[in-house]
Amino acid sequence: MRLVAPALLLLLAACGPVTQQQAERQCFERARLAQQPRGEVGVGASSDGGASARLRLNVSSDFLMGRDPSAVFDSCVFQKTGQPPTQPFYSRTDLKG
User: Fold this and answer.
1) I need a surface site. Which of 62, 63, 73, 90 has the fewest CB within 10 A?
2) How many CB atoms lie under 10 A from the CB of residue 93?
3) What's the whole-model pTM score?
């Protein structure tokens, strides 16, 4: 029973507010997925003649709904912190096509 209280406190702390920087990092990835789907394709072969293929595709509901990535970013950061982002989505230097 003594371990339950510390575990509960850790669980509640994980639900607490995030920093502006953490929120912007998390929301940036969400906004990038609203911009366009992301994915990977892999093809391989073995020496015994076997072959393999892999396809991984990430498509967000924001993309499917046609939401503006900048608006997704702004609202996400505001929901997480109660403040607007420190920098607009399209002016970020880490935004790549």
Assistant:
1) 90
2) 6
3) 0.70
Amino acid at 28: F
d(CA 53, CA 10): 41
Q: Which residues contact 72 (CB under 8 A, 6 or more apart)?
A: 27, 30, 31, 34, 62
Segment-wise mean pLDDT, segments of 10 residues, the chain, 97 residues: 60 70 95 92 86 90 95 96 94 78
Q: Decide if 52 contacts 44 (C-beta within 8 A).
A: yes
Please report which residue ranges of the chain form alpha helices under DSSP H.
4-14, 20-35, 61-64, 69-81
Q: How many domains does the chain contain in total?
A: 1
Using DSSP's 3-state secondary structure scheme, residue 74 falls into helix
